[in-house]
Write a structure and sequence with these properties.
The structure holds two protein chains of two kinds. By secondary structure, chain A is an alpha/beta fold. Chain A folds into two domains: about 260 residues, Rossmann fold, CATH 3.40.50.300; about 30 residues, no CATH class. Helices cover about 30% and strands about 30% of the residues of chain A. Chain A is built from eleven helices and 13 strands. In chain A, α8 links the parallel β7 and β8. In chain A, α5 crosses α6 and α5 packs parallel to α7. The longest helix of chain A is centred in the middle third of the chain and has 18 residues. Chain A starts with a helix and ends with a helix. The relative contact order of chain A is 0.13. Chain B contains 28 helices and 22 strands. In chain B, β6 and β7 form a beta hairpin. Chain B is globular and about 125 Å long. Classes of the chains: A alpha/beta, B alpha+beta. The interface between A and B is medium-sized, with 32 and 29 residues.
Chain lengths: ~300, ~900
């Protein structure tokens, strides 16, 4: 017989949960947009773990759910189901007040459109000071100037966005995102509207913020220039994480990139589409457990007929 | 985030908002002022039109006992002070000390029974009067002011008269000639208790126009009265000094009057109801004075005081007229307020759309909803409140009394603007990211909203039913206006707007089907866009519709008033001009009139008053060629019965004579009339009542000749020309134009008509602004669509056409709905609206004239569509390249 107290104790006992120590945790995250009977499932059970201080890129085709994920992480959008936790804060159970505090001090973000990040009628410095003011803090000019200095746009402090180049605008935008000393910085295609040289500068600025301030940075991007320079690239397909590419620098200085498929907690795996096409895999495959790996074979025609 | 900065950045939209707040507040604060002013002016005109005797309060007393007699001016002054002291509070401020105020003792109807030293003249009356303060109002042009009276021991030639009072009197200078009363004339007055009066001075009034004289007409001039035998009686009043009061005793026909002069400036539309009540109170007070048991201030034993004034019926009549004016004004100002609030809401919408980017970014960057809403609302307030204040301030330049609505209306406008901004911003920024999936279809209306709309429609219909059955101004005097019923027209309009909004996609579908079959893509695209447009486009409907409904309603009311005024003028004159005389009009005069330039036809007629041989009733008899008269007034609203035909002297008679197949009357001679039909009235020619209409040749058929004492004239001829041609002093000349002018120049009528015009123009302006604002609000979306279509090969001209087509269906449908509601409003208000005060006669029905309303609707629709075209032409170029990947 199990006493009720035992059950209670067991329930209360902390088990090491999935990604307990991760800085950003998404577990089986679902986001459904529903209007007038039409449902769009933007995220369909997405899992993601990001450690503190990591710099990762999220890539995926248009409509794969990258932007939705970023909106959820930035607290602008509320997921339908699942678990999303950033810096220990549960994004599903947050009250409006918590959400506001979260946006004020935990995350900072950068949009793709350079013009949308900054108020056109404020100078660079004023734009950086704006989040501080909104959070009710005393405006720290010195901190604003330091941030602009750090991102290499100290000379833009007194100029309005209209007088800045696209790259400068995005770097000021990064400074704005960093204004309240967030733990996470989220960027939605920050280099999408920029040429490659400028992209380099902006990405450099992001990496610098990541390294020098220890901020966790998540960048949604199409830009190979960006995705190939981060330690980890997460691919999203159809609202799920499908692959991860890890990069490490070998002893002789070469960057070695290794692509992994993502295995979720219940054992689901997405095979890359070109692999499936190459072997004409359809509907079902044959798996065989070997000593150190699992083999995947296309179903043989004879077996098909038995169906 | 700084509200002022937002204003500076979006100064265009803020400026539009401020300007609209200014004009709206000026209109809604200024129009009531000018209306109130017009009401007051109308009252002043009314008070001026009638004599001071009607407007002033006169306490009168006919002393008939010795006890009642007041022998000194001090006695009068005491009572005067008492009357004044006991006036109710408002009346006390309305009654002035100077002006026409005075007190007097006058005899009346005192015949001159003879003269001393000269032959007597018949039919003369000389009264004796003492009037306070008259010394300053007359100037003696001959002789001297009268001295104190004395007693005359004997009268030469009249041995029966002994120790009788002897007055020295001053007469108006006119009396010397007209009554043969030069200085030195001594007259014996009254048949009993005879007195002698000697004319010692002749005066003329210092200021004949002084309203003081309206109380003392008999002193200012010699009055005459025509007796039945055509002789004239003459009346004059001789002034005596205060000492004469002792001799003016109760044995004479004597009246004492205390005139409490009214200051017309102190009476206005707002205090008139109270004044009426206070006059009644004062009348009670006055009549309760005196009498045996009274120890009241009058202290006159048997005195029966009376309050004589026409002020309260005058004010009551005025208030009746005013009430229907106020109902109309309430409707048009209410409509204007609704439209103004709608346009301001639209401007607030524009402004908040312009701020959306900044506020949305701030919200995403960590601004709380309260911060965002407060900043946006503050910015709106910074634009709207100074505008409304400026309009409010400017409204003080418009002359007129300040009523609560003058303060409340701009306040309501400002509050509406700020409140709308707060609600809109709060809703728009409730979630930090609302535009995340703009590609999804629009949400269906919530059941709650549908229920609310149905409720509004049901309430409006129920209200209309109640209004029809009870009337808008019924019992207003007793119970005050019913606010629910007063809101019905606005509610009906709103209900119409809601139905239009919900239903306009249905007719569009038909149009769409037609457009889809045609080859050109532009009509199809335009109508499709129109059918899809939501949100900002619904506000212009809510503005255009009431604007048009009120304008059409106004046109109908003006039309009804105008038509009825014309009818009243026709009924008053009976033709385009009429010359009438008691005696006969000579044939050469008739010929002269017919020869006047402009005169197209003249119909002679004879009119008289006769007594029926049987029954002894009196009747008006008319001898006129009705066929000629009918063709004379062809095209006018007058209906002329068919001419009587038959043996003998055929005649049409009133209902009361229909029972007699034939009867005799005495007119010029004794004639026998054959009743061949009935007639109810011939407006302008005879008063309704007992009427007999015979052919013009009637008297001739009776063996005499034709008579003429009335000429009915058609054609364009002025009064002066007619008077000159007629050349008879006692002839009455009436013309249609003059009569119409007199009816339509009544001050309240002018106010109503001007009010409707001003409001219609303002509404038209607002409708135009509304359409342009709606287009500007949707400009970003539209330019995106257009720039996409332009990459597919749409020309600039087609783009313009597309913009116009996008708004045109809504405007046209709204115009039709507004036209329908405007045409239906008079029916809905039905008996609640009494316009008879403006037309001279009862306005029986609203003729549904379609021309003006249809023109108004078409004009407003055209103006709005032109606004759209102007926006499409002058607006920003729509060729901006599509930026790939842009999501907002």
């Amino acid at each position: 017989m199990t006493a009720l107290s035992d059950l209670e104790a067991r329930a209360a006992a902390s088990r090491p949960a999935f990604g307990e120590h991760a800085h950003i945790l998404c577990d089986n995250l679902v986001r459904i947009y529903k209007t007038e009977g039409v449902e769009v499932v933007a995220l369909q059970g997405l899992d993601l773990l990001i450690e503190k201080g990591e710099l990762i890129a999220i890539v995926g085709a248009s409509g794969s759910g990258k932007s939705t994920l970023l909106n959820v992480l930035s607290g602008l959008d509320v997921p339908t189901a699942g678990l999303a936790r950033v810096a220990g804060m549960d994004l599903l159970s947050m009250t409006a007040r918590d959400r506001l505090r979260y946006r004020r001090s935990v995350v900072g973000f950068i949009w793709q459109q350079t013009a949308r990040n900054l108020l056109p009628y404020l100078t660079g410095r004023e734009n950086v000071l704006l989040p501080m003011r909104l959070a009710g803090r005393r405006a720290q000019r010195q901190r604003a100037d330091e941030l602009l200095e750090l991102l290499g746009v100290a000379d833009c402090a007194g100029r309005r966005p209209g007088e800045l180049s696209g790259g400068q605008q995005q770097r000021v935008a990064i400074a704005v995102a960093l204004a309240n000393g967030p733990e996470v910085i989220l960027a939605d295609e920050p280099t999408g509207e920029l040429d490659s040289d400028t992209s380099e500068e902006v990405f450099g600025a992001l990496r610098q913020a990541n390294r020098e301030l220890g901020v966790t940075a998540v960048i949604v991007t199409h830009d190979p220039l960006v995705s190939e320079q981060v330690d980890r690239t997460v691919g999203i397909r159809d609202g799920r994480t499908s692959s991860e590419t890890l990069r490490r620098t070998s002893e002789d200085g070469d960057v070695i990139a290794e692509e992994y498929a993502v295995l979720d907690r219940v054992g689901r795996l997405q095979l890359p589409r070109d692999f499936m096409n190459a072997l004409e895999m359809e509907r079902r495959v044959r798996l065989e457990l070997e000593r150190d790996h699992i083999g995947v074979w296309p179903a043989t025609p004879g077996e098909e007929n038995n169906d | 985030m700084n509200a002022w900065r937002l204003i500076l950045v979006h100064r265009g939209a803020a400026g539009v908002l401020a300007l609209l707040a200014l004009t709206a507040s000026l209109l809604v604060a200024g129009l009531p002022r000018s209306f109130e002013q017009a009401y007051d002016e109308a009252l002043t005109v009314r008070l001026d039109e009638v004599s001071a005797q009607q407007t002033d309060l006169t306490v009168s007393l006919r002393p008939n006992m010795m006890d009642d007699q007041i022998a000194s001016p001090a006695g009068f002054a005491d009572l005067d002070a008492d009357w004044r002291g006991n006036l109710p509070p408002l009346l006390r401020t309305a009654v002035q000390a100077g002006g026409t105020s005075h007190f007097s003792a006058k005899t009346y109807g005192t015949p001159v029974m003879g003269r001393i030293g000269s032959p007597a003249k018949a039919r003369q009356y000389v009264d004796i009067a003492w009037v306070s303060g008259i010394e300053d109002r007359v100037r003696y042009v001959a002789g001297r002011p009268p001295g104190p009276p004395r007693t005359l021991a004997e009268v030469p030639g009249h041995p029966e008269l002994k120790n009788i009072p002897y007055f020295e009197i001053g007469l108006v200078a006119d009396a010397e000639q007209r009554m043969a009363l030069p200085i030195g004339t001594k007259v014996l007055l009254a048949n009993s208790y005879t007195v002698v009066a000697e004319v010692v001075g002749l005066f003329e009034p210092v200021d004949p126009e002084d309203r003081f004289w309206e109380h003392n007409e008999g002193i200012r001039q010699v009055l005459e009265r025509r007796l039945p035998d055509d002789n004239l009686e003459y009346y004059a009043t001789g002034l005596v000094p205060a000492e004469g009061l002792r001799f003016l005793d109760s044995r004479r026909e004597l009246t004492y009057n205390w005139v409490l002069g009214l200051n017309p400036a102190s009476v206005n539309a707002r205090n008139a109801p109270t004044l009426i009540e206070e006059i009644e109170d004062f009348r009670r007070y006055v009549t309760s004075q005196g009498g045996q048991e009274s120890y009241g201030p009058a202290r006159l034993g048997n005195a029966r005081f009376d309050l004589v004034t026409g002020l309260d019926p005058l004010l009551t009549g005025y208030l009746t007229e005013l009430r229907s004016a106020q109902t109309l004004v309430f409707l048009i100002i209410g409509g204007l307020v609704v439209v103004a609030i709608g346009v301001i809401a639209l401007a607030v919408h524009l402004f908040s759309e312009r701020m959306r980017g900044s506020l949305g970014l701030a919200r995403a960057r960590g601004a709380s909803l309260a911060q965002v809403t407060a900043t946006g609302t503050a910015a709106t307030a910074l634009a709207a409140v100074p505008g409304a204040l400026a309009g409010y301030g400017l409204s003080f330049l418009i002359p007129g009394p300040v009523t609560p609505v003058v303060h409340l209306a701009p306040l309501a406008l400002a509050l509406a603007a700020v409140g709308f901004a707060a609600v809109r911003l709060a809703l728009a920024h409730r979630r930090p990211l609302t535009d995340s999936r703009a590609d999804l279809v629009a949400a269906k209306p919530s059941p709650r909203r549908v229920a609310a709309e149905v409720l509004v429609i049901v309430l409006a219909l129920a209200g209309a039913y109640a209004l029809r059955s009870r009337g808008l101004s019924t019992d207003v005097a007793e119970r005050g206006a019913d606010p629910f019923l007063a809101l019905v027209p606005a509610a009906l309009t709103l209900a119409g707007a809601l139905i239009t909004l919900r239903c306009y996609p249905l007719p569009l579908r038909l149009v769409l089907r037609l457009a889809a079959r045609r080859r050109g893509a532009v009509p199809f695209l335009g109508v499709t866009l129109a059918a899809r447009s939501r949100g900002a486009t619904s506000l212009p409907v809510l503005i255009l519709l009431p604007a048009l409904a009120v304008s059409v309603f106004g046109a109908l009311v003006s039309g009804a008033i105008g038509e009825t005024q014309r009818l009243a003028a026709w009924q008053h004159v009976g033709a385009q001009a009429r010359v009438e005389r008691a005696a006969e009009i000579p044939a050469d005069v008739a010929a002269k009139v017919a020869a006047l330039p402009g005169v197209t036809a003249v119909v002679p007629a004879a009119k008289g008053t006769v007594q029926l041989a049987t029954g002894g009733q009196t009747a008006t008899v008319l001898a006129i060629d009705l066929d000629a008269y009918r063709s004379l007034v062809a095209g006018s609203p007058l209906a002329v019965p068919a001419a009587p035909t038959g043996p003998g002297i055929p005649a049409l008679v009133s209902k009361s004579f229909v029972v007699y197949p034939s009867f005799e009357i005495g007119w010029h001679t004794r004639m026998k009339i054959n009743n061949v039909g009935d007639v109810t009235e011939l407006p302008g020619l005879a008063y309704p009542g007992n009427l007999i209409v015979m052919p013009y040749e009637g008297p001739k058929l009776a063996g005499l000749r034709t008579y003429t004492n009335m000429l009915l004239i058609s054609g364009n001829v002025g009064r002066e020309a007619l008077e000159a041609a007629v050349g008879l002093e006692d002839a009455v000349v009436e013309t249609f134009d003059e009569s119409l002018g007199r009816i339509s120049s009544a001050p309240l009528t002018g106010t109503i008509t001007t009010g409707f015009t001003v409001v219609t123009v303002a509404m038209g302006g607002y409708a135009l602004i509304a359409v342009v604002l709606a287009l500007v609000i949707g400009a970003a979306d539209r330019s995106k669509t257009l720039s996409f279509l332009r990459t597919l090969g749409l020309s600039q001209r087609q783009a313009r056409l597309l913009t116009v087509l996008e708004v045109a269906p809504l405007i046209v449908l709204t115009s039709l709905a507004g036209l329908a509601i405007g045409l239906g409003l008079p029916a809905a208000l039905g008996p609640g609206l009494d316009l008879s005060a403006y037309a001279g006669i009862a306005v029986t029905d609203f003729p549904l004239t379609f021309t003006t309303p249809a023109l108004l609707a078409a004009g407003l629709a055209a103006v709005s569509i032109l606004g759209a075209l102007a926006h499409a032409t002058a607006g920003r170029r729509m060729t901006t390249a599509i930026r790939v990947g842009e999501s907002s």
